């Protein structure tokens, strides 16, 4: 890998070897940016990055397990060594184990809660913390947290919501917590050029929701990624501390 020139945008997408993460990496790379595809499985990250490079995009794999402190630290050190800064961080890595767990075993299952929060909340917080100095070294650092409308407390209580019937306590509360992290980071970084926002990509055709999700979901990964990428490139005076989807702001 060659050292990125200072004029080139450097982006890191977690959970980028497939689905929404891969689509997001592709769209960011199509702007001319250098994109680092983070994944816990190095071989899968290498394969995905190689496919994108075959298309002429500047993409490189980086081993990053968001549940491992040592893996996160090693990835941050690698980015600092090879690039010296990070312009965009997309906290995309997420899990939804409740989708494939029988209903009778789901309510307030502490194992599910711990697994879900370890990735969806603690992972995003740990990665953001580790890369914060590199984001602050950029002209305009951006953090995009991939959330969900199901993390909106207002939406959960709205009987007209298309998600009103969904009861996924671990996933829904993890995304609400992630939104809280977005607000806290935005406030604590308000005197810096770093912008922090939450994005709901919609119901996406990925493997996240189990084997039947691809057929049921209405939105392709590429379509969903456009909302994520839009927030990844907000201008210096753009929004921070917001929660949006393709149609605009979402109530907290």
TrEMBL record:
CDD domains: carb_red_PTCR-like_SDR_c (cd05324). This is SDR family oxidoreductase. Gene3D superfamilies: NAD(P)-binding Rossmann-like Domain (3.40.50.720). Transmembrane segments: none annotated. GO terms for molecular function: oxidoreductase activity, acting on the CH-OH group of donors, NAD or NADP as acceptor. GO terms for biological process: secondary metabolic process. Belongs to the short-chain dehydrogenases/reductases (SDR) family. It holds the Pfam family adh_short. InterPro entries: CBR1-like, Fungal_SecMetab_SDRs, NAD(P)-bd_dom_sf, SDR_fam. It comes from the Bacteria. The keyword Oxidoreductase applies. GO terms for cellular component: cytoplasm. Keywords: NADP, Oxidoreductase.
